Amino acid sequence: MERDEVYVPKTREDLRIPDCPSQEIDWDDVLGDTPIYTLLMLIRQQLLAFPAYLLYNVSGQKSYPKWTNHFSPNSILFTKEQRNAVLMSNIGMIATLYIVVYASFAYGFGTVLKFYGIPWLALNHWFTMITYLQHTDMHLPHYRGRAWTFQRGAASTADRNFLGWQGRFFLHDVAHYHVIHHFFPKMPFYHGAEATRYLKAFIGDHYVRYDTPVFQALWRTYNDCQFVDNEGDILFYRNKKGKAARSAKKD
After folding, report:
1. Secondary structure letter of residue 248 according to DSSP
2. In angstroms, rounded to a whole number, what is the distance separating the alpha carbons of residues 159 and 181?
3. pLDDT at 155 over 60
4. How many CB atoms lie within 10 A of CB 136?
5. How confident is the model at residue 20 (pLDDT cuts 50, 70, 90)?
6. Which of 46, 103, 169, 197 matches a 20 to 30 Å C-alpha distance to 30?
7. If DSSP states are collapsed to H, E and C, what string results for 44-87?
8. Strand 159-160 relative to strand 209-210, pairing
9. Of residues 136, 93, 128, 169, the one with CA closest to residue 236
10. Is-contact 169 189, C-beta < 8 A?
């Protein structure tokens, strides 16, 4: 929990849920939403969560300073060696913004929206969907304090059969072989399939992979993964009824 960089689970306290037995809580009153509202909030997440994370550290590490973002070269997110790279990135984004504004005047806002704006939103959707499903699931553990180790943290993610062969070809296996990236972040993506075979054999049941259709998984995950408890070293998400799919004591 203290070492997660993004998709940090909300706690009972964050959602102001009483820390008392589940049967004493009116869960429909606390977390109940209509399906259409849930869908609208999911669409908002898919289109805007990535820029919100870059700008305001939304869903990021809660221990970071209030104004943490990905554009300040002095941000806690970056090392001193990365400062110049952040500055160059900012210059590139300013140049891109200038080109977009210029193109809007030259060719019309509708044209720029069609050829740039909508594809940009689609990029946000795919990027958010892939990373969200890689790091969020009822069965994936989250660790606090001394319960965390590098190996445990690295294994707390999932590979997914993302759009079959299309996902492998167009997305360069980014979703199919993500667990290995946690263990070896500098390894080239084209070694993912081979390296995953060895990793799976080595860590056994600690390796997680799902073949659930990704849009079905997205809807189910967004509805089920609501919060974790305030206390405990090994945590699992609880759903809108306050129930967890796994228990640290049993596993």
Report:
1. T
2. 10
3. yes
4. 20
5. confident
6. 46
7. HHHHHHHHHHHHHCCCCCCCCCCCCCCCCCCCCCCCHHHHHHHH
8. parallel
9. 136
10. no
Does pLDDT of 65 surpass 70?
yes
Write the CA distances from 139 to 75, 162, 187, 198, 245, integer angstroms: 33, 18, 27, 23, 6
- The H or E element that residue 167 is part of is helix 164-170
Nearest to 3 by CA among 129, 98, 143, 196: 143
151-163 in b/e form (b: 16+ CB < 10 A) is eeebbbbbbbbbb
First to last CA, the chain: 19
**Contact indicator for 53, 65 with CB cutoff of 8 Å:** no
Query: pLDDT class for 250, splitting at 50, 70, 90?
Result: low
Q: Residue 248, Cβ neighbours under 10 Å: how many?
A: 14
| Residue given tokens 């997305």 in the structure block | 171
pTM beyond 0.85: yes
